[in-house]
């Protein structure tokens, strides 16, 4: 059976939070207070968990044209690329898995406008992410398919079943405790960064911890 490598994106494969960096890019020609207010609403919603914050974030795109947002995403990533957005040690791991012929999958709570150009740039085989609700070519502001926590694990299990991936021989990379459902599925989990809950779990389980490049 084929093996795979599953990568969280924000603060794992890349060193920046794509959702907020992109939102700042999208709103940068508007009054600065607009982004600050949007950020604060999402931050406040996190009291209810990452799922609640996810819902609040995508409300910012209600009524936006999907194609226009996708084009903004491409421009945003081109700017980020010039500044070097990747965690190089993690990117090196990604490239090694890809060179070995493993299935490479990005699994993220972010959405296609941010992630499509990243996936294309690194040559990922698959992208699994949050899908905002769309009607008549525009975002409604609601979430059709969230991709966090247990939903990520379900997506990985679905890929493994559909494509015949041996999870026991596969790898996964994540930076936050919410990535645990995916890390627990594979035989070679790797923790990225210094999240105390996740690092503590990794220490107890004997998992490797990959520090971010400084």
What structural class do the secondary elements suggest? alpha/beta
Percent of residues in helices comes to 40-55%
Shape: globular
How many helices? The count is 9
Q: How would you spell out the order of helices and strands? A: EHHHHHEHEEEHEHEHE
Query: Beta fraction of the residues?
Result: 15-25%
Cα-to-Cα separation, first versus last residue? 37 Å
**Strand order of the biggest β-sheet:** 3-2-1-6-7-8
Low-confidence stretches: none
How many strand segments?
Answer: 8
Describe the sheet with the most strands. 6 strands, parallel
Which value, in Å, is the CA radius of gyration?
A: 17 Å
How confident is the prediction overall: mean pLDDT?
Answer: 94
Give the quaternary arrangement of the chains.
single chain
Provide a descriptive summary of the structure in words.
The protein has 214 residues and is of the alpha/beta class. It is 47% helix and 18% strand. It has nine helices and eight strands. The strands form two sheets. Strands 3-2-1-6-7-8 form a six-stranded parallel beta sheet, with helices on both faces. Strands 4-5 form a two-stranded antiparallel ribbon. Helix 9 links the parallel strand 7 and strand 8. Helix 4 packs across helix 6. The model has no long low-confidence stretch (mean pLDDT 94).
């Amino acid at each position: 059976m084929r093996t795979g490598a599953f990568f969280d994106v924000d603060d794992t494969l890349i060193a920046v939070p794509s959702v907020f960096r992109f939102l700042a890019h999208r709103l940068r020609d508007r009054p600065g207070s607009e982004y600050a207010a949007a950020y604060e609403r999402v931050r406040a919603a996190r009291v209810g968990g990452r799922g609640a914050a996810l819902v609040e974030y995508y409300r910012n795109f209600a009524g936006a044209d999907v194609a226009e947002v996708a084009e903004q995403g491409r421009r945003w990533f081109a700017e980020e690329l010039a500044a070097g957005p990747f965690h190089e040690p993690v990117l090196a791991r990604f490239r090694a898995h890809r060179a070995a012929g493993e299935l490479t999958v990005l699994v993220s709570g972010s959405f296609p406008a941010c992630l499509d150009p990243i996936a294309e740039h690194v040559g990922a085989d698959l992208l699994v992410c949050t899908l905002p609700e769309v009607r008549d070519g525009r975002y409604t502001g609601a979430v059709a398919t969230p991709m966090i926590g247990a939903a990520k694990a379900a997506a990985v299990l679905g890929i493994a079943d559909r494509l015949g991936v041996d999870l026991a021989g596969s790898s996964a990379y994540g930076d936050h405790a919410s990535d645990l459902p995916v890390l627990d599925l594979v035989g070679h989990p790797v923790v990225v960064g210094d999240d105390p809950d996740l690092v503590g779990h990794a220490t107890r389980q004997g998992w490797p911890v990959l520090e971010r490049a400084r």
